[in-house]
Amino acid sequence: MKFIDQTVIQVIAGNGGNGCVNFRREKYIPKGGPDGGDGGDGGNIWIESNNNLNTLIDFRFKKIFQAEHGMNGLKRNCSGKKGSDITIHVPIGTKIINYQTREIIDDLIKDKQKILIAKGGWHGLGNTRFKSSINRTPRQRTLGLIGENRYIQLELLLIADVGTLGMPNAGKSTLVKNISSAKTKTSDYPFTTLNPILGSVEIEHKRFVIADIPGIIQGASKGKGLGINFLKHLERCKILLHIVDLCPIDYSNPIENIKAVLHELKQYSVKLYNKPKLLILNKIDLITTSKINQYVKEIKNNLNIKEPYYLISSLQKIGTKKLCSDILYYLKK
After folding, report:
1. What is the DSSP pairing of strand 6-12 with strand 162-165?
2. Given CB 3.0 to 4.6 Å as the disulfide criterion, which of 18, 97, 243, 266 pairs with 153?
3. 84 and 145 housed in the same domain
4. Residue 284 sits in a domain of what CATH number?
5. How many domains does the chain have?
């Protein structure tokens, strides 16, 4: 299934039905008086979050949602039928934005959360409503009001406790796959992960959700690669795992890779850059102990990184259990 996390739709609420002008015409009742009924209200449009959805792909081709108009009033004081409402279902984590003003209307972060997004027009009044002691044969009525018509931007931000961050092939997907229920694709070529994936990690009878997003490369903030398009999915995360490949297949310097990722993150969002991070030095099974110690020494001496670091192997599951336990501890704090 294609992952779509942003779209613009048009929502058109129903118009209210017009009031009716009518007078009773019955045998032996020559002056029956007014009996024109009111119109029906126009249908509303609602947006509701649904736990069974994880992408906005349903809006790829259907962009216009229109509720039913209210029916006009009828004789014999019969009101017109109300227009049917429409409920649009979106994934949990969908942010609703007014496309014209850029105002955030609501943020649906719970299941079954519902919001009225376009209100139907109010019904018109029939001539019965205008009857009085001095106006026995009213010919007035009112027209139904037009329903709201607006353009809405839907933006999906995944809800996860922990997010992964790093260069392509750093081992992010392998780590997420081995510690959680996520069925991520892993391989030895860049950008194996094309879309964000969520996984649930259960440890010590507790659970947290981890998000795997595509890797970031140097120049990502200027449009290179894929990762910058999905960094917004880390905004809701409480902790970020900065995963570093200690044995890159392109023979790049792991220390320079750390600097590049942090630079791109800061260029994208200072708020995201300042989130709590854990530095994960991955693939320790592929290099010698002396090389590992050299990298750790360089990180301490050359990088102003205050967050804790972990030495792990995602593939061999070395150090991953302690990492998960510590993540749980940090989440509690």
Report:
1. unpaired
2. 97
3. yes
4. 3.40.50.300
5. 2
